[in-house]
Design brief:
The protein is α/β, with parallel strands linked by helices. The protein has 10 helices and 14 strands. It folds into 2 domains: about 10-235, 3-Layer(aba) Sandwich (Peroxisomal Thiolase, Chain A, domain 1), CATH 3.40.47.10; about 245-375, 3-Layer(aba) Sandwich (Peroxisomal Thiolase, Chain A, domain 1), CATH 3.40.47.10. It has helices at about 25-35, 65, 70-90, 125-150, 170-185, 200-210, 265-275, 300-310, 325-330, 335-350; strands spanning about 10-20, 40, 60, 100-110, 160-165, 190-195, 225-235, 245, 250-255, 290, 325, 355-365, 370, 375.
């Protein structure tokens, strides 16, 4: 008897769910395509009561009408619940909602973004900070999916909850973990996504203190946003066409990370896109492509892409590819960017207005780079 064929190293999209400043996944994608945004003034940030007229004024994109004044974990649970409820509406079959059938993967932000070994701390201080980070992570691990499940009417066993505190590229690691779980038959479905909020008061205060927020004195800063986005994946996918195939993400390393104080070399992004240079023919899958960028207004990422594009121009038609910048409609959504950009690309495929192969690029502040390329399958 011949051995069975190896399982496919990809998955199919069954449903999308989101909570963004522009609404659910359908509303967000439609508004993004129409260049609609809901920029608002952020109250109580950078305001000095002694000199209120000269205090900076910051703007951002928030889900405030939905989250109210919730902060931290409670805000994340509220946004995550809205996204999961949309999955339930798009895929009403009780099969994936049955306890034990589905794994849940969520990416969350690092509680210390800068590399701890580059802070010049002594061993005792490093251990104290690491203990604090682990404590914060455990707080979210114990409560996030349990809280979301309670609000959505789902039982999510702890053994089937997975968390990645990996920065911006964490979602792409989560995609690969989801495909691995499906191919190893550890579950029939995987819900994979990310939640982040740069307008949460603690994050805003940090960004403001670091001088990274955009205002009249800092035109190249961040406009903060927030989002929760999840994808429901299976090995079969829906019967409707086109199916969206989710392939494993690819990774590379940029030698000069954000905190190095040096400009990026572009080598990380070039390594991800270089395979297309080997086959620039018109029938190449990447002869036509749409780029989804995480450019957020900061010079580091703009310079990185600029120098990457210069290096690639001789090998591929980069300059002719459409560019999509989620930050223009949603602000910088931190680690939720990857899930949000993937959702937007998948909606474009489903609705039939994508142009060529979607390429979702991500530059993590710690130097890791990621590329994800969902594709239609008729």
């Amino acid at each position: 008897m011949n051995p069975p064929d190896p399982p496919p190293q990809h998955a199919y999209l069954s449903a999308l769910g989101a909570c963004t400043p522009l609404g659910d996944s359908i509303s967000s994608a439609a508004a993004f395509r129409a260049d609609i945004n809901r920029l608002e003034t952020l109250e109580g940030v950078g305001v000095d009561d002694d000199d209120i007229e000269e205090a900076p004024r910051y703007s951002g994109y928030t889900c405030q009408s939905f989250t109210g004044k919730l902060e931290g974990l409670a805000r994340y649970i509220r946004m995550g619940s809205a996204a999961i409820n949309e999955l339930k509406a798009q895929a009403p079959s009780a099969d994936w909602q049955t306890s034990g059938n589905t794994a849940y993967i969520c990416t969350l932000a690092n509680f210390l973004e800068e590399p701890i070994d580059e802070l010049g701390l002594d061993q005792t201080m490093e251990e104290e900070i690491n203990n604090e980070i682990r404590s914060e992570e455990n707080h979210y691990i114990k409560r996030l999916f349990n809280g979301i499940g309670a609000e959505c009417g789902l039982t999510i066993p702890e053994a089937q909850q997975f968390y990645l505190f990996r920065g911006s590229i964490g979602f792409f690691k989560g995609i690969n973990k989801a495909i691995e779980l499906l191919n190893n038959q550890q579950c029939q479905y995987v819900v994979v996504g990310a939640i982040d909020s740069l307008v949460d008061p603690a994050r805003l205060e940090m960004l403001e203190g670091e001088g990274r927020l955009k205002d009249t004195n800092n035109p190249t800063g961040i406009i903060p946003g927030e989002a929760a986005c999840f994808l429901l994946l299976t090995l079969n996918g829906p019967a409707s066409n086109p199916k969206v195939q989710i392939n494993p993400a690819h990774f590379s390393q940029e030698p000069q990370h954000y905190f190095s104080g040096e400009p990026a070399t572009g080598e990380g992004l070039k390594a991800l896109l270089a395979p297309a240079m080997a086959d620039p023919a018109e029938n190449s899958p990447l002869a036509q492509a749409s780029l989804y960028h995480d450019l957020n207004g900061e010079p580091y990422r703009a310079y990185e892409w600029g120098i990457t594009e210069v290096m690639l121009k001789q090998g591929m038609p980069v300059e002719s590819w459409p560019r999509h910048l989620p930050a223009e409609s949603f602000g910088d959504t931190g680690v939720a960017y990857g899930a949000l950009a993937t959702l937007l690309a998948c909606r474009a495929i489903i609705r039939g207005y994508n142009w060529g192969q979607p390429l979702i690029l991500c530059s993590d502040n710690l130097g890791e780079r990621a590329l994800l390329a969902p594709q239609p399958v008729n």
